[in-house]
Specification:
This protein is an alpha+beta fold. The chain has 15 helices and eleven strands. Helices cover 45% and strands 18% of the residues. The strands form two sheets. It has a six-stranded mixed beta sheet with strand order 1-2-6-3-5-4, sandwiched between helices. A hairpin with a 6-residue loop joins β9 and β10. The two termini are 41 Å apart.
């Protein structure tokens, strides 16, 4: 076990074989040369996320990119699908508060063709009305299914009190049913024209292709993208001033509760200590709420660490929400006051480091780490440096991180008023007494 951890820590160290360059049109590229294989990973980040959306067009970017990547004038739908089948290339997409990301995984020999097709889809999308409608219907079904499930919806309920009116993170990158259903083909064309600009794009790569070869390939493909870009506002801090509670009535057999609270923003040196602290909270929630009181099947706690503004959270589904929420707040206060063993803190920190080290071995994760660090704090090294900081974590560092950042909290509860007495609900404080 010691040798495994040693290997993973070495792997998580800031790599030396990383090169940065700009294409002639200004697109910034970060590439990590990984020899000894034939698999390439390449990610395109479209920077902006929720900051380029408004109430009326939530989801337009996700919809536009999915529609565009169905095929282009040069690579129409049928030919593009045939290329995917022949090359066995895989794509995955994610749309979050700070950026949209498309990731390609393929063999080195297929990279030139796939990059040309990828760029062509963005610049000259086919946008066949029938195909666009099919994508729209599919996204609507998935979105409505998610929103109908209270276990998914509870996170959005908690956002309402925690984030504060007008915060860009309240806007949904994947959209809401009313906006998604309203988009037309022309909306997609206009959005792609306005957003596919060099200043909005960052490309990251991990694989055996050398920086010189990659630059030549990208100049031919993505070098065609026009110059320009959006001037983005800063992401404001969450505006919560006092503990809040938002309750939604739903006919459900169990109640769902989520509480959110501030966490260190991207680039903060407190992120490793805070994430370790929330790992301790997660462990204690399981012990207290499930093992000792049998109130739930799977409580959880954690934190985000790669957004411009981050948050911690605790979650539970239970038939006794008042008692459960009371115990959740008590668990948090105990950890914040240092009522935990050093052995637990050390174990959680080592476990986090191991998990992150294993995950960082995939081309997908490497591309994400390079791009996320660069986009959120201006330096790709940030993601790697945070991993290195997980060593030798102490109880003092953990408790200080929680007390310095987590203050007022935003609670969200979904429950059935015919089963649960809503008058007993309150925004349970996480502050030390």
């Amino acid at each position: 076990m010691i040798s495994l951890l040693f290997t993973l820590v070495l792997f998580a160290a800031v790599p030396e074989n990383v090169t940065e360059f700009d294409l002639d049109n200004g697109i910034h590229v970060i590439t990590r040369t990984v020899t000894g294989g034939e698999v390439e990973g390449l990610s395109l980040f479209l920077v902006g996320g929720s900051r380029v959306l408004d109430e009326s067009n939530q989801g337009i970017e996700a919809f536009s990119l999915e529609a565009a990547l169905a095929g282009s004038d040069t690579y129409p739908d049928e030919r593009w699908r045939q290329i995917m089948d022949t090359t066995l290339a895989s794509w995955n997409a994610s749309y979050n508060y700070d950026y949209s990301r498309y990731h390609l995984k393929c063999l080195s020999e297929d990279l030139p063709l796939l990059l040309d097709g990828f760029a062509d889809c963005l610049l000259e999308p086919e946008l066949d009305p029938q195909i666009v409608q099919r994508i729209q219907s599919s996204q609507l079904v998935a979105l409505q299914s998610d929103l109908e499930d209270p276990d998914n919806r509870i996170w959005l309920v908690a956002n309402q009190g925690f984030m504060g009116a007008g915060h860009p993170y309240l806007l949904r990158p994947d959209g809401i049913p009313s906006t998604l259903a309203s988009f037309e083909v022309e909306d997609v064309r206009e959005w792609l024209t306005s957003r596919i600009k060099s200043g909005n794009i960052v490309i990251t790569h991990a694989g055996p292709t050398s920086p010189e070869q990659l630059e030549a390939l990208l100049e031919v493909s993505f070098g065609r993208i026009p110059e320009g870009g959006d001037v983005l506002p800063e992401v404001p801090e969450f505006a919560i001033q006092n503990d809040t509670l938002v309750v939604e009535n739903d006919e459900t057999l169990t109640a769902y509760a989520v509480v959110k609270f501030k966490a260190p923003p991207s680039g903060s040196v407190d992120i490793p200590a805070y994430s370790t602290a929330m790992g301790v909270v997660d462990e204690m929630l399981w012990q207290v709420l499930r093992t000792e009181h049998a109130l739930t099947y799977a409580p959880s706690g954690g934190s985000t660490n790669s957004y411009r503004q981050n948050w911690g959270y605790m979650y539970i589904s239970t038939t006794e929400p008042v008692l459960s929420a009371t115990l959740m707040a008590e668990v948090f206060r105990n950890v914040a006051m240092g009522n935990v063993d050093q052995s637990l803190v050390t174990g959680i920190a080592n476990n986090n480091r191991t998990i992150q080290g294993i995950g960082a071995q995939s081309m997908d994760t490497q591309c994400w780490m390079l791009g996320s660090g660069y986009i959120t704090v201006g330096d790709w090294r940030n993601s790697y440096e945070l991993q290195e900081s997980l060593g030798d974590m102490t109880v003092y560092e953990v408790t200080r991180a929680l007390t310095d950042w987590a203050d007022d909290a935003g609670w969200g509860i979904i429950a059935d008023s015919a089963v649960v007495d809503f008058s007993e609900f309150e925004p349970w404080s996480l502050k030390g007494e």
